[in-house]
Amino acid sequence: MSFPDAVFAALRTEPAKIAVEHGSREVTKAELLNLTSRIAAGMRAAGVNGGSGVAMITEVTPEALAAYLAAWALGARVVGIRPGFSDKQLDHILGDGLDLIVTDAKLPALLDTEDEPLILTSRPENVARLVYTSGSTGLPKACAQTYQALGEHYSWNPSAWDAATAAQAAACDRYLLFGSLASVVVQDYLALCLLNGGTAVIPLSVKFPEVLADLRITFTIMNTPRLYAMLDSLRDNPIDLSCLRGMLVAGSPVAPHRLQEAMSRIGPVIYHAYGQSETNALTVATPAEILAGHVETVGKPQGGVDIEIRDGEVWARNPWMMRGYWEDAAETAEVLVDGWIRTRDLGFLRDGYLHLTGRARDIVIVNGYPVYAGPIERVLAQHPDVDQAYVLGPSEVLHAFVIPLPGKELSVDELSSLVRDELGPNSVPSTITFISEVPVAPSGKPDKRALWHD
């Protein structure tokens, strides 16, 4: 089945069922299809067809969701623009061969047209979406995924669901749709919800963990910093979250003690996943595996994913990975080699489970020798009174930033000795700074660069 026809087929089933809930507004499957077909007609009138570039700068609304589906129905190249890009980065993205820029203000005009049948006009080799990287090293790069890739994608193709994906889809009766529709993770888990007949619940305001209980959410996605903040809140203000049947945590590895705390305070519903913009999801640890003690791993490869470790680096491939970086052959050649993606992450496989040990580029030369930040962070985080630890190395000097557990006091000398005993003197940070929280980048990941600049 061609992408995204499986979603349209699901929306045609039980047309009176609620597909999207936005505050007090309820949008049925039939109404969402109608919105999609009308916006598609409006886009077609504006000159959009197969291969056109369509940028989305929207809030999370039923109309914005319909706009994404409409552009894909027309076979367009969809560019989701999330908040957080600088003006220079936006100029770079918006100046790259776009035919239409969709904003919330423009959606009423696109809707002001007659309903037309949805006819997919995409070609398998056309690019369906460009996924922009965070741009932490300069201008963001665009990962290009084709219609064929998304047709085989683990979330968008029910016939390809493995047991873990099917279990998550079954938990998506009420999926919390928040953040940005430009997020690949948001899109892909929204697909699980719609394909399984669930309701996407758009909150009018987002405050974790209260929003989960207030809206009776059964499934949500969560980045690691937000999870940590939620756990801190639950320590002092417990909330009944028995409505939750699944929570996917991704974006950066979760410390083992925090993963165990999440399973205890939130419930045995945590899925711990790993992936990249270039590959989408690669591995997942299920709640049952976490309960069985697999807390130092990001899980096993998902169905359709191959992983190899080459010289300590994680290499991966799957049917839905990027075709390459959009109009950037040199960068593509660096990362995409003989059908495999170099993730630039370090790790190892044990009993089929992937363990991450750091970033290949997260390296500091100390006294002429390479030192990786990841192992130092893990050693520091193993201290019983440490909540989180981050290490970076500007100017070939190691600096650590440590968040103590609430009410705990830490000694720089003790932490230095811990690293020295475990990893040797070259890995001991020159400075250890105690902080209360870590800055978060627009991508939702901890912003280590901001720590140093602050």
Termini distance? 50 Å
Provide the structure class: alpha/beta
Domain count: 3
Sequence stretches where pLDDT stays below 50 over 5 or more residues:
none
C-alpha Rg, in Å? 22 Å
Q: How helical, in percent, are the residues? A: 25-40%
CATH superfamily of the largest domain: ANL, N-terminal domain
The largest sheet has its strands arranged as 5-3-4-6-7-17
CATH topology of the largest domain: Rossmann fold
Mean pLDDT: 92
Shape: globular
GO molecular function: ligase activity
Keywords: Ligase
Pfam families: AMP-binding (PF00501), AMP-binding_C (PF13193)
Protein name: Fatty acid--CoA ligase family protein
Characterization of the model:
The chain is of the alpha/beta class and 454 residues long. It has 3 domains: 5-195, ANL, N-terminal domain (Rossmann fold); 207-359, 3-Layer(aba) Sandwich (Rossmann fold); 363-453, ANL, C-terminal domain (GMP Synthetase, Chain A, domain 3), CATH 3.30.300. Helices cover 31% and strands 27% of the residues. The chain contains 16 helices and 25 strands. The strands form 6 sheets. A 6-stranded mixed sheet has the order 5-3-4-6-7-17. Strands 10-11-12-13-14 form a 5-stranded mixed sheet, with helices on both faces. It is globular, with a radius of gyration of 22 Å. The model has no long low-confidence stretch (mean pLDDT 92).
